[in-house]
Fold:
Amino acid sequence: MEKKLSVALVTFGCQMNKSRSEHLLHLFLREGFSRAQKEEEADILVFNTCAVREHAVARALGVISYLYHAARTKRGKPPVVVLCGCMSELLREKLLERIPYVNVLVGTHDFNVIPRFVQETIASGERRISFSPPSPLFLEEGYEREGRISAYLPIAFGCDNFCSYCVVPYTTGPQRSKPKELVLKELTNLLEEGFREVTLLGQNVNTYGKDFGTPYAFEELLESIEKRFGREKIWIRFITSHPRDMRRGIVEIIRESHILCPYFHLPLQAGSNRILQLMNRGYTKEQYLDIVSYIRESIPEAVIGTDIIVGFPTETDADFADTLEVVEKAQFEIAYTYAYSPRPRTKAAELEDDVPQEVKKERLEALTKVLKEAYSKRLLVHEGRKVEVLVVEEKKGLLFGRTRENLGVTIPTKGKSYLGEFLTVCLTRDSGGKLIGNVEEW
Ligand code: SAH
Ligand code: SF4
Structure:
């Protein structure tokens, strides 16, 4: 029997990219390829890239070169190299100057043709390139996931928001939503396969279904999920919610549900109204804090996560102080912070990147400090709670899990394996502020 060609996928960037790689692996396996044990041994190296910050591009270029040369040495001949995803979509053929050994170069809208292109490039020795326009529908189906505990499930692809700093609308195209029946079918399969938690993905899930002309389609989707799976033991979350589109009705549906979990990822980006306007975010800091208050009042144990950018063009110390003020008030449990990075094609790239690197760094440090202090205050709400934790990892005598609300918890263990199980624990915190879960009956 002929040996199957092996594929290794290397993924950069966001959860959506991770999920798209799982889909791509599914396509490869369906076409008779196998999964490589190690990247260095793979016949085919696929790089699913990110372009959200310049740093991501620089890192990808380094990793691609390293892995290509490692595989070439190990195998004694070069692997087939596939470049796809957002960096490809943005930089296109220009990438060939930097990575001349690419065999297949496609953007974000050509994943379906990649396995065929690989077969063709192997047969002909010729490079295959394609940059298709976005397809009008989002019907992606079939994912080869790692493990059987947590799954990503994309419900929409693309973004219409054009935040002025962001390259995503250019690299992924307009938002297209997956039909509700397909989402429900995929959820049924995940449940049957034994998955314990599912994260619905979209750049702005709250506008799910806008492209079908249905303004409250996200609420309808959540209600259908609750109706169909409400009695099952599975946790369902969703990211990301644009604060501008965070309707109260969504919070109310979550409050009444057992399976829809109260984790809200609400990227603040900045606290200054002037900067928010320059960012084209469509809300003020007051409106943002109103939503946060509404969530906190409706579901006191809800967890709120955020993304924040420091050093957007023209950001002054006073603007930055507004960001710190919102952080103090909102008391985020989870936060990702970034230094502004100008991106090609975006509106903000027309502005001078005038906040010096040094200042961006100082602001990031100051922000981290205030985030920690605010989180520490917020932990008083969670401490002492008796909650269920889903165990997702076991390492060195410790279990790592998440609560329904997406709080990370460390649990000292008794040696037995609890992977994929729900454990009831009492939450405390250690001296470093880390949440510890104690199982009473142990
Ligand atoms: N759709 C999601 C994810 C967007 S990308 C959302 O709206 O939140 C993830 C995060 O990267 C963004 O929330 C933003 O904080 C950050 N980001 C995007 N473009 C950036 C840029 N040019 N410079 C620095 N950070 C950026
Ligand atoms: Fe980028 Fe804004 Fe769309 Fe998020 S909502 S992907 S930040 S344009």
